[in-house]
Amino acid sequence: MTKRPRKTTKPLLIDEELPLKSGKVRRRDPKQPELPFDPMPGRIEPCLAKLVAKPPHGEEWSYELKWDGYRLAVHVEPGGVRIITRNGHDWTHRFPGIEAAARNFVPETLILDGEAVVFNEQGIPDFGRLQNALGTSGRGPGKLPAGNAILFAFDLLYLDGHDLTKMEYSARRHLLEDLLACRDGGIRLSEEFDEDPDELLRHACAHELEGIIAKHRDRPYRSGRTGDWLKIKCIQSDTFAIVGYEPSTALRGATGSLLLAARYRDGWKYVGSVGTGFNHDEARRLKKQLDKLKTRIPAVTVPGKNLVMTGPTLLAAIEYRAWTHTGTLPHPSFKGLREEADWAEVYRVSDH
């Protein structure tokens, strides 16, 4: 026997003749996503990589090269482009090539996290050349633009009204790859490598790169050194204060070596000297700069004769292999002067 159709409790069609009535407004379910756009932040404190001796293994980790340059956040906003350094300084005018590339993006609002680098003739990132391009090597008082710098973007923090920092890294990476697909020029994608991290590190070191970065695929973007991102270096590179110099005995009017100090408790600790990495012209320029900073009250006690002590004002980027058992830098090499704004980067020696 055929059953009658079930009678519905509500009409399937709306009678257009009836007046419209507003329903009861319900509070939004907090478990559901918020639909309104997120306000664009003026600045996001960067996620920093924690230094480890060996790369982690596992499918939860993503790997890419570590770029030797300046960490930047590129803000594409309705009113233009802002390029912000790791310490919050506006350096838009100092990276005209990156700024021009950012203006070509179709999305009206976005924030890219990346590293600005300058390559040498061999196609290797050269931090010294980047410093020279920015006018931080002592050649003149001005701040010069680095027009040939390239931004390798490795994260996407904000896109068209949506804050992406709460998303896991794998989802942010997918959006970043779509955004930068087939892009060349001043802004490029930092490539992700799907291979054994030990082999990747070996290849990076063989090509004189700084090392590799490992990122946890399931973590959101968290500011600070949380351990979500890890860095594994071929050669250590840190910032130290110059607290004096030893005059050159072979080149008149030049430094022979620079005396270096690291932060220690509430003061400074001598960590050795560096006499390589700068040419004759740089050695003369360094002496002129340091002679203006001479002091009778040295920041540290340094053994030796004919030393010129200075206040810890100039900062130096130094490469080295590892720490000795005496607490000094073995085989250090001078890479260039750092910005005065980089005081937060000065190496700190622990009590252990």
From TrEMBL:
Domain of life: Bacteria
EC annotation from Swiss-Prot or TrEMBL: 6.5.1.1
Classification via Pfam families: DNA_ligase_A_C (PF04679), DNA_ligase_A_M (PF01068)
Domain ATP-dependent DNA ligase family profile: 151-233
CDD domains: Adenylation_DNA_ligase_LigD_LigC, OBF_DNA_ligase_LigD
PROSITE patterns: DNA_LIGASE_A3 (PS50160)
Reaction catalyzed: ATP + (deoxyribonucleotide)n-3'-hydroxyl + 5'-phospho-(deoxyribonucleotide)m = (deoxyribonucleotide)n+m + AMP + diphosphate
UniProt-recorded Gene Ontology molecular function terms: DNA ligase (ATP) activity
Alphabetical keyword list: Ligase
UniProt-annotated stretches for the region Disordered: 1-40
NCBIfam families for this protein: NHEJ_ligase_lig
Family statement: Belongs to the ATP-dependent DNA ligase family.
Name listed for the protein in its UniProt record: DNA ligase (ATP)
Organism: Pseudorhizobium tarimense
